[in-house]
Amino acid sequence: MVITGKTKIKNALEKYPELKEILISYSSKFKKLNNKMIFNTIAKWASFNDVAKIGNISICDLLHTLNRAIGEEENLTKNFPDCIKENKIETKQERPNWYKDVKQFIHFDVRNIDGYFFPEIISKLNKLEKGQALTVINDFEPVPLMRMFEEKGNKFFGEIVNGTEYHLTILYEQSKSTINPKIDWKEQLEFFPELNVIGMLKDPFELIVKKAQTIESGQGFVLIQAFQPTPLINLLKQMGFETYTRQEDKLKFKIYFYKPISQNTAIKKGEKVPVVIQSATPITYPIIMKMLQSKELMSKIEIQELKVWEETEKHMAWIVNGKADISFSAAAAASKLYLVGSDIKMMSVDIWDNFSILTRGYTANNFGDLKDHKIHMPLFKEAPPAAVTNYLMKKTGYDPVDFDFYYGKPFGRPKIIMNDFISGKADTVLLREPESSFTLFHTGKDAHNSISYSDIWKTINNNNLKLPNAGLIFKGEFLNRHPKIAELFIKVMKEAIDWVNNNKKESARMSFDIMGQPPEAIEYFLNRAHFEHVPTAEIKDQLFEYIKVVDKRAAKDIKKISGLFL
Fold first, then answer.
1. Residues β-bridged to residue 242
2. Helices 331-339 and 384-395 meet at what angle, rounded to 10?
3. What is the pTM of this model?
4. 8 A C-beta contact, residue 240 and residue 297
5. pLDDT tens column, 511-547
6. How far is residue 232 CA from its own chain's centroid?
7. Contact at 8 Å (CB) between 166 and 192?
8. What distance separates the 2 farthest-apart alpha carbons in the chain?
9. Domains and CATH numbers, the chain
10. Cα(198)–Cα(200) distance, integer angstroms
């Protein structure tokens, strides 16, 4: 292969990668090409004639140097003068009509920028509004940029101003800003819209999933994170995305997600049902992660919001305000909200036997062994955990007044209780899953799972009844408008629960960084958790007994509560 002035740098280097170092070392003016991002951009769009112009060097000298290195110098000489001909971009001396119609020019002077400014150009173009254009100011003709915009089909105009400045003005049309499905998507990484979650204070999981759901076939986005989120990458692969990861430094990863066009599965925009999903606890993460991999479900719904709360009051507020279409909620919370007029229906119980008393440095065989210790409790005195504790104590012959309960300010947060136990600030705590398992895992042999509420519950009822904790709730309006979607959601959820129960190691690998724990901790939690899908219609009596315990008001009007369960 003879390298000529028209040869694209990318094509030459694909065949002769050793030429990269020769090109960089050829002239001090090519020092910037040591930057990988700058080099990749120029190599993709520029010819050797272009870089010779940029560096103000002889194209003949450059071509002889490169062809000599690959043994093609003699053939280069035979091709003279065709070898130095240019593949010119069509330019106009007069400003085009669209230029005259621009209402505002946004100027971006790159002459004193040493770094890689190409992404900023794309960012500025993406922010343009109708009637605006971007003018990039440089001290030479930016041919690589012009070739890129020419290939993308953008309207642009270049001109020399004041004898020294080169102005490249681009009329950015939104339809031209997207990825071209006819070109290899990995050759268009510069055009992927960014989602930067580095330093984000809130959990970015739902934001990422929501972003993924808005991506149309033939398009993509780039996630910027401080680490490589392997489970999330695997999740989006299952959702139909192709991925590519580029590590820029120790704490900066760019993960590119691209959704290829599939004629068999393409769904027109607007055909999916918009859905807001929430969970009152992180215990549902493994189930949700598996459900998101269902192509059948994801082809029918568009997730508007996906929130997993640590603050139960925020979860309840979404139900009260009618924001959540589907919720994973505690049975006690559902009954309370139903009695105050929330339009909700509880379809199933899926999380059972959720609470345990953990002790550190000693073992408690019964409630009596806790009397000399401060019991750190979740939420507040009137909340279901306290109500169940009081009930179980009384049923086993103890008076709750004799115990020292401690609630945080303003609430006992499970994560704070967990951290206090692990650090040694607390030696007796009541915790739900998954915090209960994580606490035992990180504390080690000094920690004991002393009292299981489910064991006491079964003994009291004398019939091996499980403790019904939480399940699936639909907003009534959503259930009435989209019964088929609700039916599909329940089907996929049941399948997800069965899969998680039978594939705990794989489920742990799929969920660990989303839950902020090592895979071993997630697997330990999954071995202790009790997931089982049971329709509420089959266990109404069990639910009534449980709600009588945790909600005094509901106990007085249990007939009304029956309308909550379908």
1. 258
2. 110
3. 0.67
4. no
5. 888 888 999 999 999 999 999 999 999 998 888 888 8
6. 7
7. no
8. 104
9. 9-84 (no CATH), 97-176 (3.30.110.40), 185-259 (3.30.110.40), 273-353+467-564 (3.40.190.10), 355-461 (3.40.190.10)
10. 6
